[in-house]
Amino acid sequence: xxxxxxxxxxxxxxxxxxxxxxxxxxxxxxxxxxxxxxxxxxxxxxxxxxxxxxxxxxxxxxxxxxxxxxxxxxxxxxxxxxxxxxxxxxxxxxxxxxxxxxxxxxxxxxxxxxxxxxxxxxxxxxxxxxxxxxxxxxxxxxxxxxxxxxxxxxxxxxxxxxxxxxxxxxxxxxxxxxxxxxxxxxxxxxxxxxxxxxxxxxxxxxxxxxxxxxxxxxxxxxxxxxxxxxxxxxxxxxxxxxxxxxxxxxxxxxxxxxxxxxxxxxxxxxxxxxxxxxxxxxxxxxxxxxxxxxxxxxxxxxxxxxxxxxxxxxxxxxxxxxxxxxxxxxxxxxxxxxxxxxxxxxxxxxxxxxxxxxxxxxxxxxxxxxxxxxxxxxxxxxxxxxxxxxxxxxxxxxxxxxxxxxxxxxxxxxxxxxxxxxxxxxxxxxxxxxxxxxxxxxxxxxxxxxxxxxxxxxxxx
Length: 461
Hints:
globular, Gram_neg_porin_domain
């Protein structure tokens, strides 16, 4: 089935579920979920308008349709419809059934889509649409593990017990992603949060690894303590479309108004799709003798391959009307211990032309943020956050200028957002964020800074 057809078939499933007897929403108080025979239909629709002083044109595949934060190709002012400013638009089904002796069986399947273009999110597809296109003419793009699959979000089964925790298997949100979005004051908003839009802090250094295939994941809460562990069987092609294995550990505690988490993560053969193919790389696909000869231009991307290791500390203080957040993350990128072959196929069926030697020395990326949420009224919340990413020099020779992307540099972002809730299913938001790059982080960028306000509406069911 063509990728755009998955959205319509998924929405057809949603409509069919909604039409079941007894599945209609109730008015007023109480449980108004769309549940029948233990199966619940759920979803979010997030649609808005975004402006960038330096942006790029509308894309029917990128996760927000537009680049809300400054990227390399951001160049021209842009006013456009946009999707998923505060939350990823999603439709899915989930279930939880008793198995006896306090145990429950559960499952969950969902997909993320773009209301502004009526298509599924396809991050790699947003890049391939720019293959061979000059940088200043490229449409918006962004890497993502959501690659046009039928279920590009979660797809897992599992069991749970209030005493022994929850064990799931399949395509799951990683422990690191869960922690980042929990302690981000903007909950990984794609329009206003640096860690939401870029995704690499939640993806152990690469955006596509926020959600992983073929994962056994365990989480537990015991009094003041909570934690989890997960392992990805990435080299088992029957259960995963992603090469490379991964593991993550999380240990956390809550006491009174305080909550803390520490996360350790490692991934082999992580792939970063950071840019489309150049004209020369596209030409090589049709040049006999080229290592990439014969690969399809609309399904092939250059990928930086690395073994990534991350440790992270996160905290929250709940003062009642105000909640305060802070986090620090350290990511180490190294050349892969098992180099990837040209033409390796990954999530969404995309082919990789790999760079296995991108890091003459291990690259260190540090990300930190502070922020708060403040309840102005019972129905109006104010959000504010400051994000900073710092890259060490990792070339053969140290540098701290724009001459190379291997030079040290940093990225700053500030956000301010207000959200008005009318009821549990409908809210309206508006906000702005400013982003700017410096030194090695700015290498290859057409502009150095951008100011990007957005407004939108969000419906949940």
